[in-house]
UniProtKB/TrEMBL annotation:
Protein name: PadR family transcriptional regulator
PANTHER family given in the database record: TRANSCRIPTIONAL REGULATOR YQJI
Domain Transcription regulator PadR N-terminal: 58-128
Disordered: annotated segments: 1-23
Organism: Paracraurococcus lichenis
InterPro entries the record matches: Tscrpt_reg_PadR_N, WH-like_DNA-bd_sf, WH_DNA-bd_sf
Coiled-coil region: none
Pfam families from the UniProt entry: PadR (PF03551)
C-alpha cells in the first residue's frame, strides 16, 4: 500500500548528525544542493553549490581563519556579492560532516557560546589535494559576485537619479553664467572624487 513519501527531517531543527552528505543534499530555499556528480544548472534560481563543493568552500574559509557558523554564512555571502546566502540548515550539517571526517575541529566558545571551527591537518591536506577544484569554486564565486554586483545599491541608484534630476532642472532654467557653470562643474568633480575614494 502506498503511503506517500516519507517525511524528511527539516534542515532547521538543530544540528542533526547525518550518516553521509546525501542526507542533507536537498532542495534548500529553492537551491538544489546535490552531491558530486549531479547537474548544477538547476531551474529557477539554479543550484549554487553541490554539497561536496560546499564542503570545500567551507574548508577554505576556515583555513583562512577559524570561524563560527554564522561567520561562514556571512563569508560566503561576501564572496558571491550577496548572490547567494546559505541557510543554517545547509551550513551546520556540513560542519558536522566535516567534524565527523576529521577535517574540522570545533571548540565551545566562552560560557558555552557559539562554537569556533578550526581546520585540522587532515582538513588542510584534503584542501590541498583538491586545490584545483577549490580555485575553480573561488573563481566561480567571484564571477557570481561581479555579475550580482553589476546593479548599484538602492541608495546609490536614488542618488544618481537625484543628481540627474537636479541637473535637468537647473539647466532647464536657462543659460548659465561662467561662474554658475564653474560652480556646477566643481560640485560634480567633488562628487566624482568622493565616489572614487569611497
Amino acid at each position: 500500500m502506498h503511503h506517500g513519501h516519507p517525511h524528511h527531517r527539516h534542515p532547521h531543527h538543530g544540528h542533526h548528525r547525518h550518516g553521509h552528505d546525501r542526507r542533507f543534499a536537498r532542495r534548500e530555499h529553492g537551491l538544489d544542493l546535490h552531491p558530486f556528480g549531479h547537474g548544477r544548472h538547476g531551474r529557477g534560481g539554479g543550484r549554487f553549490f553541490a554539497s561536496g563543493d560546499l564542503r570545500l568552500v567551507i574548508l577554505q574559509l576556515i583555513a583562512e581563519k577559524p570561524r563560527h557558523g554564522y561567520e561562514l554564512i556571512k563569508g560566503i555571502e561576501e564572496r558571491v556579492g550577496g548572490a547567494y546566502s546559505p541557510s543554517p540548515g545547509v551550513i551546520y550539517p556540513t560542519l558536522t560532516l566535516l567534524e565527523d571526517l576529521g577535517h574540522v575541529a570545533a571548540e565551545a566558545g566562552e560560557g558555552g557560546g557559539k562554537r569556533l571551527h578550526r581546520i585540522t591537518e587532515e582538513g588542510r591536506a584534503f584542501l590541498e589535494a583538491n586545490r584545483p577544484a577549490v580555485e575553480a569554486l573561488l573563481a566561480r564565486m567571484a564571477e557570481a559576485g561581479r555579475r550580482h554586483g553589476g546593479e548599484p545599491a538602492p541608495q546609490v541608484l536614488r542618488a544618481m537619479e537625484n543628481l540627474k534630476m537636479a541637473l535637468r532642472l537647473r539647466l532647464g532654467r536657462g543659460p548659465l553664467t561662467e561662474e554658475q557653470a564653474n560652480a556646477i562643474a566643481a560640485a560634480l568633480d567633488a562628487a566624482a572624487t568622493g565616489v572614487e575614494r569611497a
